[in-house]
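Lay summary. Proteins are chains of building blocks that fold into shapes, and those shapes determine what they do. In this project we predict the shape from the chain. Here is one chain we studied, written as its sequence of building blocks.
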Amino acid sequence: MINLYIDPGTGSMLFTIVISAISAVVYLIRILIIKAKNMAGIKSANERNAKKIPIVIFSDNKRYWSTFRPICEELEKRGQNAVYMTASPDDPALEAKFEHIKCEFIGEGNKAFAKMNMLNAGIVLSTTPSLDVFQWKRSKTVDYYVHVVHTSGDITLYRLYGVDYYDALLLSGEFQEKQVRELERQRNLPAKEIRMMGIPYLDTMLKHAQNFQRPVSDTTTVLLSPTWGSNSLLVKYGEKLIDKLVETGYDIIIRPHPQSFTADRETIKHLMEKYPESKRLHWNRDNNNFDVLAKSDIMITDYSGIMYDFTLIFNKPVIYTEAGFKKDPYDCWCIEGDTWMLSTIKKIGTELNDENIGRIKEVIDTSIKASKETTLIEEARKETWCNIGKSSELIAGYLIDKLAELGNKDKPVIKEEKA
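And here is the predicted shape, written in a compact code that computers can read:
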């Protein structure tokens, strides 16, 4: 029998060598695992970025194509790839022919929002308010959300928290920025990026108006164009106003807000049955409002934004009623004083109320003859409509520049785990 004897010094050295070897193997295995994880992470991130849509334009209704069309056309000119996603199956965009802009229907209502909630994109441009408030949530794989105004006037006339969770706002007047900054202060929100860009659809409408030849007519045309809801003009004055308008002998065009056919269904149904189409009375539901605005001599409205399309483009008079406008459902409730829209319409329009509704013909004739509106309309135009004729170019350029700025997010940044 052979007895092996290892002195304590040698034994200690051998034990250290064995432990060191085992530790080295464990460390090597751990390093390999970490590298494998990192490679998998890089591969996964690269796969996501490879599928990332550079720019998505989201429209929740076909009526906003008038805002997005000139932007799409400008992106097309610049060869910038983008996807236009719409929640309207009959959106005119679906018939458009682009090389770089793909237009697709993504479903209606919650189906559309479900698609948007899982979107993988660099930038999302939209007119839709309430991002991250109701059913439309910010996607974790979208880098930047940009809101563009689709009408002139107050940014605070959205329902509460309308634009709070966008990253950037493309506005058309400095008073809008002041409103946003005040809401950010009150709600302790981080400052959003704000750029003054203008109003694309008004630019297009103005260009069209400059080339439009109105048919000669010896009859005054009155456009009745209210908003919707329990405080709207048709709900408040309905039959009483229409009866008096019919008595004038003027041509009457009634153009309810599209939402009226849902929210005020019974009221609209009753009025359309009582006042059917005739030689002097017409109901208008055209998707594009240009023709009725162009051929009308005067508009009667409440607090619908269409009044500014009418005045800013055509320099024509407006008769308005506040119709019991209530601020509490809207962001403007948080800001003292009148909205810009209401304070301005009081300057450039003539109020319709219980006292003068019986003299509506006189009010119409006086308003058309009055000359005070022209100067005041020009002042309003300067306040709410910047970069006239240039908005689409500016917006397209901004989106492309922002995409380049966000480019580093297209490259996965994987932090090395410490061994």
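What the prediction tells us: Residues 374 and 414 are 61 Å apart (CA to CA).
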